[in-house]
Amino acid sequence: MTKKKAIVVDLTPNQSVSEMIELLFMANFEYMLTWRDQARSWQQPLGVHQFRVSFRRMRSLFTLFRTVIPRPLARDWTTAMRALASEAGEARDLDVFLTETVPAVEVRRELPALSQLIAKGSLAREEAYQRVVLMLDSSEFATFCERFPSWLRQRLWEQGGGKIQKKLKLPAGEYAQKLLIKQISKINAMGSDIDTHNAEAMHQLRIEFKKLRYALDSFQPLFTNLSTFTQHSKGMQELLGNLNDIEVMNHLLHRLLEGENDSELHYAAGVVSGWHEHKAYHTLTEFNQRWQEFVTAEHDWQLESHFES
User: Fold this and answer.
1) How far apart are the first and last CA of the chain?
2) Contact at 8 Å (CB) between 59 and 78?
3) What's the Cα-to-Cα distance from 29 to each of 12, 36, 82, rounded to whole Å?
4) Could you tell me if residue 309 is inside a domain?
5) CATH number of the domain enclosing 192
6) Is 11 inside any structural domain?
7) Which residues, including other chains, have CB under 8 Å from residue 35's CB and lie 6 or more apart?
8) Residue 289 to residues 121, 247, 285, Cα–Cα distance (Å)
């Protein structure tokens, strides 16, 4: 099985913002291409996962650089990326369901109907991967793979107005520092008095943490000590991710059991859902501890003297 590889980007603080944009997008695009063959088969589940994550990272970069990439340009590409990645979404959800969600319950409860649930999930996964293959062989994906790197090399975002031109010429390190501070401030304001039982509010907080995670990963080469802060933010990212997994699981179970009248199968699904929701409830009790770890983490990477030469 192919192992996950790190995305290596040769960024330096003194490069221009425009150069940083091209390098980050190109690195993620090329990373996506390394996984497209593995994404064709559920026997290599890391493939479809990393393929999908690559698109998420690129869409997140458009959000991150929204003040310097004209909105019409960003909208066209993010729309195309969302459409392509969505075909891999159900396949990934079913991979998690069959390899993590159900097995976690299966070892604790003997439910004959679980085998039926696994069978339904396996069939749905085969169909989902068929749709992934169709997408990978489609003219839409081929066109994207041809046009996007060409767009990057041309740096067409540089055709924006005067304010955009000025920002694009700023040093990458200075601009990245401001973006990180802005995103952290947004999260602090959003999460300081959040109602942890408000599903929509928690979902929005998870999205903002996801954006921060991708920004931290992208800007890692520009700073020293950034990895320390990244570690302090992982607790919140994992907690919010686990809560989101519950929502995804329940939505998936609903689809799998649509039109199904077998009471034992519904009972088995209820056990799976209940076990994970119970686990999530205990995870939620750790919110304050993990939140404090995040908000009290040192921001020593902000100091200009900490830029790598």
Assistant:
1) 37
2) yes
3) 20, 11, 14
4) no
5) 1.40.20.10
6) no
7) 2, 46, 47, 48, 50, 51, 54
8) 36, 23, 8
**Per-residue b or e along 270-307, where b marks 16 or more CB atoms closer than 10 Å to that residue's CB:** ebbbeebeeebeebeeebeebbebbeeeeeebbeeebb
Q: Which domain holds residue 223?
A: 17-299
Two tokens, residue 133: 């293959």
Nearby residues of 2 by Cβ (< 8 Å), 6 or more positions away: 35, 38, 44, 46, 47
Q: Is residue 148 part of a domain?
A: yes
Q: What percent of the chain has pLDDT over 90?
A: 64
Give which of 7, 99, 87, 119 is closest to 46, Cα–Cα.
99
Name the domain count of the chain.
1
Q: 305 in a domain, yes or no?
A: no
What average pLDDT score do residues 18-28 get?
97
Tokens of 171: 């040093």
Model pLDDT for residues 254-306, shown as the tens digit of each residue: 999 998 888 989 998 998 898 888 887 888 889 999 999 999 988 877 534 44
Residues in the chain: 309
**HSE-up (13 A, CA, CB side) for residue 62:** 19
Report the SS3 class of residue 259: coil
Kindly report the pTM of this predicted structure. Answer: 0.89
Dihedral, CA of residue 27, residue 31, residue 32 and residue 34, to nearest 10 = 140
User: By the 8 A CB rule, do 62 and 215 touch?
Assistant: no
Radius of gyration of the chain (CA): 21
For the record, the structure tokens of 211 come out as: 């954006």
Give the whole-angstrom CA distance, residue 225 versus residue 211. Answer: 19
Residue range 55-99, pLDDT digits in tens: 999 999 999 999 999 888 899 999 999 999 998 999 999 999 999
Contact criterion met (CB below 8 Å) for 164 and 74: no
Pick from 233, 241, 225: which is nearest to 294 by CA?
Answer: 233
Question: Do 67 and 167 meet the contact criterion of CB atoms below 8 Å apart?
Answer: yes
